[in-house]
């Protein structure tokens, strides 16, 4: 597991999970290429941050969390099931876990990047602004101007 902190330093998360194994082991009876060493990891292109937790707290989850791993070199995939997990990097004072931060009931302990919502919100704001500006331009050129000073 590779741990990182958010840019502000207020949360830690698992940025990457990696598993290395030798396929000649007895556990892999029907594997395609026996005798080869595989390295499987989480997909870094998804922008997925695993187990976001405030700094100084430990992440704890009683539910089963499923993490998909794959290899960019081969078509080999794996799934890691984490059960009854408590996790904390950066333990400084003693060997005990910090205060518990429980996993959420939705999301299974993952945090997605906020890039897509930011882009969609910006596009919506731009569309609203263009609509208002377009209507103002339409009224300026197409609506007959009335001089209220001469009305009696």
UniProtKB/TrEMBL annotation:
Coiled coil: none annotated. Keywords: Glycoprotein, Membrane, Signal, Transmembrane, Transmembrane helix. InterPro entries: Lysosome-assoc_membr_glycop. The chain crosses the membrane at residues 118-138. The keyword Transport does not apply. One of its GO terms (cellular component) is late endosome membrane. It comes from the Eukaryota. GO terms for biological process: establishment of protein localization to organelle. This is Lysosome-associated membrane glycoprotein 5.
């Amino acid at each position: 597991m590779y741990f990182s902190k958010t840019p502000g330093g207020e949360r830690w998360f698992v940025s990457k999970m990696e598993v290395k194994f030798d396929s000649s082991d007895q556990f892999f009876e029907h594997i395609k290429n026996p005798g080869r060493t595989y390295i499987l990891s989480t997909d870094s292109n998804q922008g997925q941050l695993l187990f976001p937790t405030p700094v100084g707290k430990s992440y704890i989850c009683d539910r089963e969390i499923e993490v998909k791993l794959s290899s960019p070199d081969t078509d080999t995939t794996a799934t890691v099931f984490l059960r009854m997990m408590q996790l904390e990097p950066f333990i400084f004072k003693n060997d005990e876990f910090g205060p518990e931060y429980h996993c959420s009931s939705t999301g299974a302990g993952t945090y997605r990047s906020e890039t897509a919502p930011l882009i969609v919100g910006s596009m919506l704001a731009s569309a609203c602004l263009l609509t208002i500006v377009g209507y103002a331009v339409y009224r300026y050129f197409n609506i007959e101007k009335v001089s209220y000073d001469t009305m009696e």
